[in-house]
Specification:
By secondary structure, the protein is mostly beta strands. It is 5% helix and 41% strand. The chain is built from one helix and 29 strands. The strands form six sheets. A five-stranded antiparallel β-sheet has the order 26-1-29-28-27, with no helix packed on it. Strands 2-6-5-4-3 form a five-stranded antiparallel β-sheet, with no helix packed on it. A five-stranded antiparallel β-sheet has the order 7-11-10-9-8, with no helix packed on it. The two termini are 38 Å apart.
Length: 347
């Protein structure tokens, strides 16, 4: 029995080592050829052109703001890519499916009923797509033509990130106005946070400031998290509008750590999983970062170099990742903007 112990111990170490390796995040290509295009298809037979925003519904379908193609696309859990709205031409037409048009849509969100909300960025409009593919404009006013919509009291300036809470309220990172807007379920638009002047001040509502806020997400408690891109920070807004700095500092960097010990470089998209972990597409660093509910920041994928390599965690490379979503199984999907693909991070 004594002679067999070294063998048993070695075997246990081997098994433990194997299990540890299995826990490393693995990056793969979920959809897209890598070449610019707008072909529907399955997995890597489909194509995109500078895709930006991602959103996911309760069934695991992923919706894509295919920005340069002026389309909104859908990817099933099995990787089948279809076009659900837009005809590829620049425009602001409401309508069903290909009868509608967009102008560089950047971000998307999905409510619990399966409706899709789109930041139609270069039109400075907020659009809604029903499950039947009917596109309507719910807020905003076009700068070029003065065309008005339901609520014209507020004009957006290149709206970016968009999120929806459980009550149907829509939050928009109004990028060019350095504000966070709120659109109620009844369609009323208000300023939720930000004074409109670039800054990094914490405070309540209009007393706070942002600098080109980009991604936005809502957690289970109704708190809103913002990728405050040019401040290189992740900000938190309570349900009553109190703005604080949750992670990062104004200086650019790629440091992991807790709260303000961590650093980012132009963080873009942001997503929250079922456990209130936050995922950040750290676009300037070409990395995907994770922030726990306690504020601990780690890098889960990306070496920091520009590239298109699949593989294990920091051996993989991205080229301007602009959006992330997490599914119910803990997988993270990335809109890899300049690689024109959707990547998958499996744990």
């Amino acid at each position: 029995m004594i002679k067999s112990l070294p063998f048993v111990f070695t075997a246990l170490l081997f098994i433990a080592g194997c299990r540890e390796k299995e826990n490393y995040p693995q990056v793969s290509t979920f959809a897209g050829t890598g070449a610019m295009g707008k072909a529907d298809g399955t997995g890597t037979s489909a194509s995109f052109a500078n895709l930006m925003g991602l959103a996911i519904d309760t069934a695991g379908n992923i919706f894509v703001a295919d920005s340069h193609n002026n389309l909104v696309r859908k990817i099933t859990p099995g990787g089948v890519v279809t076009t659900i709205a837009g005809n590829g031409n620049i425009g602001a037409a409401d309508g069903t499916g290909a009868a509608a048009s967009f102008f560089n849509p950047e971000y998307v969100a999905v409510d619990k009923s399966g409706n899709i909300y789109v930041s139609d960025t270069h039109n400075s409009l907020i659009r809604k797509i029903t499950q039947a593919g009917v596109v309507t404009t719910i807020a905003g006013r076009r700068f070029d033509s003065g065309t008005t919509t339901k609520d014209t009291s507020i004009k957006f300036d290149n709206p970016a990130g968009i999120a929806v809470d459980e009550y149907g309220n829509v939050y928009v990172a109004d990028w060019g106005n350095d504000r966070i807007r709120k659109i109620t379920a009844s369609g009323r638009v208000t300023n939720f946070a930000g004074c409109g002047v670039p800054g990094a001040k914490d405070g309540v509502g209009d007393a706070a400031s942002f600098y080109l806020p980009w991604g936005i997400a809502v957690n289970s408690a109704g708190s809103i998290f913002v990728a405050d891109s040019y401040n290189n920070m992740i900000r938190k807004i309570s349900p009553v509008g109190v703005v604080t700095t949750f992670a990062g500092k104004k200086a650019r960097g790629a440091n992991d750590g807790k709260d303000t010990a961590a650093s980012f470089f132009h963080p873009a998209g942001i997503a929250i999983d079922a456990h209130d972990n936050i995922y950040v597409a750290d676009a300037g660093n070409n990395k995907i970062r994770k922030i726990t509910a306690g504020g601990v920041v780690t890098t889960i994928a990306g070496s920091g170099l520009r590239g298109f390599a699949n593989g294990r965690d920091t051996a993989a490379t991205f080229y301007r990742p602009y959006s992330v979503v997490a599914d119910k199984n803990g997988n993270v999907f990335v809109a890899d903007y300049l690689n024109n693909v959707v990547r998958k991070i499996s744990f």
